[in-house]
Amino acid sequence: MILKEENNEKNLAQNTKIPVDYKQYKMEVSKNIMMPKIIAILILSSSIMGLLTGWSLVVGFNSDYEEYDDISLEIVARNTTSNLENVTILFDNIEMDYEYYGNGTYNVLATPGKYMAKIMAPMHKNASMEFFIAPQESNLRLPDTDEGIEGINRFTFIMEEGNGEIILEENVYLKISFWCPNLMFLFSLIGIWGAWVTYTLQSYKNAQIGAFFSVLGMGFLIIGPILSIVALYYLKKHKNMFTASFKN
């Protein structure tokens, strides 16, 4: 009886023997264990570049450019019907010397920087305009008109008859100085948050949002967006690494 049981156990072991050609199951070790860190570093690098670029704009628009050479500017003074002659030009309440070209156009020399300009003409309201003069080559001209570039080195003051003061619209550079750095800071901070979300694998969608805003942060103008676009590509390719990606 005992011998029979031993034979049965032996036969059972032979019948349940794993075939030689059967591939043994090996627990798969993820090859993408470093991918969340790599993507997070891409997003973080782009976001930091955005912060640095925004800060450089703040510094640039508020820097002292006294060591720069004077730039030739065109100040145009006219009303709705005619050009104005014999005007007084003030930059930051300092009267400027000028050369009159005719047609209401005056040539003024000034270093780069931010100015509050005021034009005073007889029988007209004083007109003020704040503008920023960026470092540039002197006497830039449009080839078609042989005039300066409006908002860059040419500023037109449309005067109104009467007494009092009028404030004219600031130039594009000043609008950029207000909006661009603030938006870069905001988008870059969202990007930093997205890098953390990616690193901790919290949410696929939130990681995408962070990477997208790091693109808008315009870090170093081109380099940052390229890094963020690469991060977006790999996020989509490896979205299954997010444990909650099916929910988010």
UniProtKB/TrEMBL annotation:
Transmembrane regions listed in the UniProt entry: 38-58, 176-199, 211-235
Organism: uncultured Poseidoniia archaeon
Record keywords, A-Z: Membrane, Transmembrane, Transmembrane helix
Protein name, per record: Uncharacterized protein
